[in-house]
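The protein record quoted for completeness.
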Amino acid sequence: MDAQQPPTIQQRVDQLAAEGIDVVRVGYPDLIGVDRGRDVFLSHLPSVVRHGLTFCQAVYHTSPRGDVVDIAGGLAEGLPDVCVHPDLDTLVALPWEPGVVWCLGDPIDPATGQPVPESPRDLLRRVTGALAGSGISPVVGPELEYFLLERDAAAPQGWRRYQGLVGNVYSSGLRGDPERHLLRTLRQLDRLGVGASAGNQEFDEGQFEINLTHSDALDAADRAFRFKAAVRELARAEGRLATFMAKPFNDSGGCGFHLHVSCLDSVGRNIFDAPSGTYGLSASARHAIAGLIGHAPALAALLNPTINSYKRFGRDSLAPWLIDWGLDNRSAMLRIPPERGPGARLELRLGDASANPYLAIAGLLAALHLGLEAKAEPPAPLEGYGYDPSRAARLPQTLDAALDALEADTELTDVLGKPFVDAFLGYKRNELERFERHVTDWEFGEYVQHV
């Protein structure tokens, strides 16, 4: 076979069969980043490649509670199909499922032959395409935190935090992880090839952080999506629950999703680095900072996408509360790490771990792109410890306010595309409506005996 020619589908099937593979898991992210998909016998893969796999488009509009939100492509249109085509370049063996390989898929509208507007993966492709048109290639490094929970019939929701020991932030070994959950998970993630580089116990009991290596934006999002799905699956295999919920407990902090980003020009030079510039940063870096600062209220809707997300915010939380930036300052929404040269980058600390990686990265890059295009200048950087609202504007404090900010930010929504934005806003506003009608445990405890 000519070395320059990609293998045919039958050659891929034969190679996988020789490796003992008999099942291909084709998966894709829904609107909130949940992994959806289907297991296919290897012998049927050629047909799947030709024709795709059909799913109801309303999977994008199905809530975690199973409700179908009636927006475009949903009930009013008779629940039409989407057709998911596997991206065989993303094939990877599942180390904990012998005989199974996993690949990502891209949903297509069979009526038009075009990507469906809700597709998070296609959204990110379109945003990176806008930057590519300016000769810029973004590089992204994700950092994600999660809580590991164990079943406990006596706990309010049936789950308690793993190990229950405090004071183990930035620790490793048995002290914070007596049953070696993190080591097992890291090794499986390494075999999966998601670019996990390191992990540790985080600030709160039962909380872990795993760092992923940096790469081009779509690959980084693919790896972060697969990372979240894999961590949840590995926890299930232990009889536990891994949650990326923003703030699952009143008496602890939340789970962040920090994104490091740099940009390369056509010859691979980091355009944020400028040894003679103020703070060692280029004009492009300043413009990018300004874009993220200017569009932060709208970005909150994508990077803090749940009602619960806004309970993570607040003073002294090490989660953003104000719209500011600082030099190596973790109390700022946007931190500039101290590395320069090829390592010059921005760290957006706005996001929480419940965010869909594709939407979070697409929003980050759209705002960065707008800052570069406008050649905007940022305000002065934060000096000292933040969280003082007299020094910077507040981020939206509720999901409702963040959604309004996204809808009002027409520059950002033009980059993201109106069909996607309309679908996202409709889905999330339904979430708010359902919550407003729901009686919470807090309300019952607060009022039942006294009113």
Q: What stands out?
A: The chain has a mean pLDDT of 91. The first strand starts at residue 23 and ends at 29. The radius of gyration is 22 Å.
